[in-house]
């Protein structure tokens, strides 16, 4: 269920148990918000764990109530510009939490080549981000199909076409993916001391560079990234976050190792937090890897070569396999790297 609003507003959500003839409910209260003229008082659904949606005025605000089946799970997330509140209702058994240690189920994973179509991403030295991310994702898919033939690997796009940020995660949720990996390349229009590899998980942050990067990848302003961070801070997502950090650690270490086979001094920018829209709402462990820095000449030149792209792809695949095996967390190499 998607609620579109004309401006960014704070809201409160709560779950209510069944009471007499009333089923379980998930309610969202929007203070100082009025209904649009075409919003129905009640909308029957009757599938996917959602019975119906009801709207009503409450004081100077609006309450939206979802009537749920007894075993359904509502998951709420938000996306700005335009501001949308999204509730993903999942029937019982539609999502399983990955164990924090030991082997993890890896029946289906989704690879997300960043950008595409009119959204070309970063451009530098004659390269376009959308082309390289698709090439890397196809390489990772082919490697994984050979190494773990029992696992299905799905791409959010297999050609140069536009896919919205919310569609990408929704696709992974819809097919019940065990892992979601979004592949991007970093860029900066100001001078940076180091390029290198960064891997991100979804979380709030006040890191200026991370906020700026998220704004570029999201196609929004830094102000909107900050507003989304404040809202996300109030949402409970500990289980998904734990799995994402474990996945990020493995992918980051292996991607850096792979890239250093070609660029031995490839810099380790670490596992960090940022507010990437493409990760919002993921039901499974989800990460975004910035596999190299396009705006640094050395890395851009390497990205033109088959060998470097294959090394990065092998690294990403190695990290996914290590996560599935439940390998011990890799060491943090940032303290030992040579600038």
Explain how this protein is built.
This protein is an alpha/beta fold and 339 residues long. The protein folds into two domains: 2-90, Immunoglobulin-like (Sandwich), CATH 2.60.40.3500; 108-325, Aminopeptidase (3-Layer(aba) Sandwich), CATH 3.40.630.40. Helices cover 29% and strands 28% of the residues. The chain is built from seven helices and 16 strands. It has a six-stranded mixed sheet with strand order 12-9-13-16-14-15, with helices on both faces. A five-stranded antiparallel sheet has the order 2-3-6-5-4, with no helix packed on it. Strands 1-8-7 form a three-stranded antiparallel sheet. α3 crosses α4 (222-232) and α5 (238-259) packs antiparallel against α7 (306-325). The mean pLDDT is 86.
